[in-house]
Amino acid sequence: MLEHPPTSKYDNNTISLLTQLTLSGELKEINDEYLYWDKVKYKTKSIEPEQYWNVIKLSRSLNKQNIAFGTYSFNFNVTDYILRLLHHFDLHIGGNLGSNIGITDTYKNKFLISSIMEEAISSSQMEGANTTRKAAKEMIQKERKPKNKSEQMIMNNYFTMKYIVQHKNDNLTPENLLYIHKLISNNTLEDVEDEGRYRKNNDIYVVNYSNSEVVHTPPKNEEIQKLISDLCLFFNEEQKTFIHPIIKGIIIHFMIGWIHPFSDGNGRTARALFYWYMLKNGYWLTEYLTISTIIKDTKGQYEKAFLYSEIDQNDLTYFITYHIKTMEKAFTALKEYIGRKQNEVIQAAKFIKIPHVNDRQAQILKILNEDSDRVLCSKEIENRFGISNFTARSDLNNLENLGFLEKIQVNKIKHNFIKSKQFNKILKSHKL
Predict the structure, then answer these.
(1) Residue at 75 is within a domain
(2) Active site annotation includes 323
(3) Which residue has better confidence, 56 or 210?
């Protein structure tokens, strides 16, 4: 368990030090990072750590904004660091595609379709799903039936993300929340009755499994309906004091984790609601930010951000700061991913020179040229390029007619495609 900070006490000396540290810029640096007591106490050189903490707490209390859910009070600050990144996200995560990441709407599906898969995989892996990225992607692309609980968790997350995209303009209601949980938890809980149902008892704790220590005790189950009702109002309505939509989305994420309304699947549900709120408020690119991939890689910081907020008088700024940093990393990763996809298109360009081969088919030829043992089906092509099943089958049939693919029968109805024996010979005939 984290060390609790000392009780704050303010006097005339605290106010004098506040002015001094503000003018020096030292206070801004600490508040931009939003350091907790366990780090702050090592930052001071000439002042006692407890006194230093008093100054920091006073500065934070002067600008905090309060919100309430049920009988519980929470607060947060909007630091310069948070403001800077909010402006950055307003410019790049909303708006139109070309201005955000330098590609046109024509290439949207081509470059971005697998990002939803990445999010589904990472969000599930954080909660214990144990499978490789490659196997998980192939399962989703081919819509293969999950073989185990891990694969079921990932497929559930993927379908939930797709559902949210389709219903992004809906309001959040208790019924909608329960349905989201049912989608996410389908066939993955010990008791099937817990799917889409609030927990019925208080025998649930958030535990640090490395040492079996209880780190969070959620509100009693009798309080859940009221807390969720307040959270729905927070989701659907404007507050009297303006709260930036991204900050609201992050608070919604935190509150589902804090309320812990379900027996399991709270983390996945919380992250799904964050995506929903962001999409509802016009931050369409959020659909393609694989935030859970970053969280999975910084899980210790993610968990500490929750604990810092709860221990330090429900100050949500710790969690907001962490989440904002994560979004920045996810946006950077998306730009790098798109760069790689653009390179793939450039590499596939030589195959477009072949008569009667379109852009998608050129990329299929590139895949087979690099992976001779690849087995393709229409469902994978449909999901990879975001096209209809008819178009996917037409692409594969055309490549078969051109001699690049060979059809193999799977059963009486289904067939797949593999690289033909004449593949390399045909390429050479086109001087490729």
Answers:
(1) yes
(2) no
(3) 56
